[in-house]
Amino acid sequence: MHAADLAQEARVSAAWKVLHTVLDPEVPAVSVCDLGIVRDVVAGEAGLEIVLTPTYSGCPATEVIESDVLAAIDAAGLGPARVSLRRAPAWTTDWISAEGRRKLAQYGIAPPGMVDKDAAVPIRFFGRSMNIATPACPRCGSAQTERLSAFGATACKALYRCLACREPFEHFKPI
Amino acid sequence: MPAESIQLALTPATQYLLRIGDSCLILAQRVSEWCGHAPILEEDIAMSNIALDLIGQARAVLTLAGQVEGGGHDEDQLAFLRNERDYFNVTLAELPRGDFAFSVLRNTMIATWLKLLWERVSVESSHEELRAIAAKAVKEVRYHQQHSADWVVRLGDGTDESRTRMERAIKQLWRYAPELFDTDAADEAAADAGWGPRWSALQDDWYAQMREVLAEARLAEPAPSQFLSEGKRGRHSEHMGFILADMQYLQRAFPAGAW
């Protein structure tokens, strides 16, 4: 391998290391890598290209993430860099790493289960008596939880409550 | 100087995209009117989140429409600088928000339609970018559908008051459904060019899913309406001008204002 290629390879792996320290602005417990938003890092003639896949169509954090990523790469002296968005395949919570799931739970957010592809039925009740699996409480671990609100403080979350320890908690919706 | 309106070089492809993007945009505007006014806090958050998803979908589709149109127009110019007749959203999206029953029924009707449309586009479209937008959007609108349909059932099969309101909403909204499946030359040409399905192809599935919701709510399915609204052809209800005045005032008064 040429020396130039080795330098590029080192630059890409250094960039990945830096990206693992860039936290999601709305869930500052996990990095953009943990969330699976960073899809690729490519070294080219004009510098690094960081390929990101947005989470929700209207997620207001997308632009903040872009600028945070570039600032971190710059600060590490790995620039010039640019961000490109890759829409396909669409982001899914299945891409959140095991480490990311652990950090979410530790932060008090119940991590998403695997996406249920058959869940796209027109009606899906979340009544108290309905037997729909709910996420375990991230604080006490109880499986006795109920959904309080289908939507939460950010596009990616819903609000739940633990019936055992009575604490409310957020759940990262599987999509 | 107030900002001048942009003129579009309209092709079937551009119109196909604008019909979708404008429907998302205008419905988002209506849904966001609930911010601070919904009957309970959870629904305030739900409505705002649904509006946000729709704005995101509108941004992606309008950006693509601008590129396809080729006149150098970006998403903001398309959203804020067109005249009423150059918007192609379905009329259903622009009707005033009404009461909560009206809004959740409308959201169910449009989410069901968008879900069927995005599902088909995500696999059938020969245009890569549109397929990608659709694959993302379908995950969002099916959640909207479930949430809104849940409310149609709760209100329809609820108290006398909630049932009366839901029955009234059905009476007011059902007549705007045929426009969602109406096919014209632009729709045919765009479908033939591989952009996505003819809208008429969504009709049977839409009525089947809506029937499921109405049955669960113990509500009667109205007879199909003979009325055909024409927002998708640029001929809007009297409400459209007012919503555009709200949306466009700032960009018209302070051209190119950004934040």
From TrEMBL, chain A:
PaaD zinc beta ribbon domain sequence ranges: 134-173
Domain MIP18 family-like: 16-76
InterPro entries cross-referenced by the UniProt entry: Fe-S_Maturation_MIP18, FSCA_dom_sf, MIP18-like, PaaD-like, Zn_ribbon_PaaD
Domain of life: Bacteria
Gene3D superfamilies from the UniProt entry: Fe-S cluster assembly (FSCA) (3.30.300.130)
Transmembrane segments: none
Name the record gives this protein: Ring-1,2-phenylacetyl-CoA epoxidase subunit PaaD
Lineage, top ranks: Bacteria, Pseudomonadati, Pseudomonadota, Betaproteobacteria, Burkholderiales
TrEMBL record, chain B:
MF GO annotations: phenylacetyl-CoA 1,2-epoxidase activity
Protein name: Ring-1,2-phenylacetyl-CoA epoxidase subunit PaaC
Family matches, as Pfam families: PaaA_PaaC (PF05138)
Domain of life of the native organism: Bacteria
Top-level enzyme category: oxidoreductase
Organism field: Comamonas odontotermitis
Entry annotated with the keyword Cell membrane: no
UniProt keyword list: Oxidoreductase
